[in-house]
Every structure is written in C-alpha cells, then in structure tokens.
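User: Okay, second chain of the day. Same drill as before: sequence in, structure tokens out.
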Amino acid sequence: MLSYLHGFHAGNFADVHKHTALCVALHLMKRKEKPFTYIDTHAGSGLYNLTNEQALKTGEFNFGIKAIRPHFSSCEAMTLYGKVIDGSNDEGDLTAYPGSPLIARTSLRQQDQAILCELHPTENGTLNRLLKRDKRFHIHKRDGLEALIALTPTPIKRGMVMIDPSYEIKSDYYDTAQTVIAAYKRWPGATYMIWYPLLPENRHQTLLEGLARSSIPAILKSELTCPQKGRGMYGSGLIALNPPYGFKEAIKQAGLIMAAVLFDAHKGQYSEEFLT
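Assistant: Same drill. Structure tokens below.
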C-alpha cells in the first residue's frame, strides 16, 4: 500500500525517539575510521515542511520536536539530534523537519555510502531532487524489505540499517521480523534498527516475538510510552540489533528526558531491555 505520507506525522514524539537514536548510532559508528554502508529501507521524502497543510492538519510536531527543542543541550544524544534539526532551519525558526536521509547526509563521511529505498512515487521524486548531487547516496524505487535481502552484504563490510515501515498492513510486523532475521544471516556484522508503533491492538508483539525466537544475540528494545495518551498510538518502540558500544546508555539518558518533557502531564515512561 502506498497511501501513507509521513508529512502528516513529521516531527512527532515517535520521530524524536527514533531519530535521536539514529543520530547516536551513526555518531558511534564513526569512532572507527573504516567506512560503513547505511541502508534506509523506508526513506520517505527526506525533508518535511512543518508549515504546510499536512503538518498543520495534525499538529503532531507541536508535541514532539517543538516541545523537546528547548532541551537539546540536556545530554549528548539530544545535542547530536539538535544539531541536525537546527541545521535544517534558519536560526530561531522551526519550519522544516529532516527525515532519516538528511540525518544520514549530515552524519556520513566521504568514505561512507548510503542506499535509500522509497517506493512511493512522490516521496521518491522529492528524495531524488534533494540528494541527486550527493555521490554517496544511491536511491532505489523498490520495496525496502526486498532490497535489504537483495543488496546485502554490501562490498563495504561494516553497515547500519534503518527499518521504518508504515505498518499499514498487519503482515508488516511478521514480514519485518523475518526479513531482519534473513538479513542478519547474510550480514551479521551490521547494526540493525527497527522502529515500530505501540497501538492498543499490540500487533507489535508479532515483531518482538519473532525476533526473540531467533538466534540473534544482543537485541535491545527501547520504548517511549504514554499510557494515558488516549486513543491511537500511545508509544514508540525501537529495536537495535548489534547496537554500537555506548548506544544503550546514551539512548536511555535521552529517553528519560523525552518521557519527562513530552508526556509530563500524562505520566510518560521510558524503558529498555535486552530481548536476547
């Protein structure tokens, strides 16, 4: 299905959680001089306008990036995230939100490369216009989960994968788990990050249980939740396979700040644990 457009949700609390983690992971990957390949299976358009009709219709960014922005200096992880946000906006303004492709563009070095997959024709077109001059980026109009198997392992041995489906289809949870397990067998040295929504139906358990039954070691689960938020998505979840050293501590520190700031009146919570 190609009906999902992230412009309605850009900069919400889930993006804050997910993209702070991505900034930390990419930063830690650069501690070694050896190059790495970044793969984004559901890249989106790369940059979102927070002043257009889509963003203003939902206003979700007001309770995400706008609320957390005054706290960018509260810890190292939030500072890394803040630099990317501020770099996409004029001083003092908050009119644009960078998606994962632009976070990668800010973080990657000249020796690194990126493979971005986006099937939606409009989103793919915007992404191409945004990054067509950057030789480090290779953009594909194809199914991201299929591409992850087809394109790995990459010639560059080190790698990091961001998997962020829309989960419009119930089977996405199962398919994502099975794809990651298969990709890990092909490319066990890579770091994999998988975002998932926390919804009342708890369909994400299919994803978690599938990964937990695998033989993959070091599967870290990070969740930012707001039990009293009401109907709809009540939290954001993130799975990290082979997380870089220092990732767990850094994202926990940021997660506790997010829970206190974003869900102050609703008893927000942050938790993390290893599934395996």
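Residues 6-274 form a domain with the Rossmann fold fold (CATH 3.40.50.150).

User: Thanks, on to the next one.
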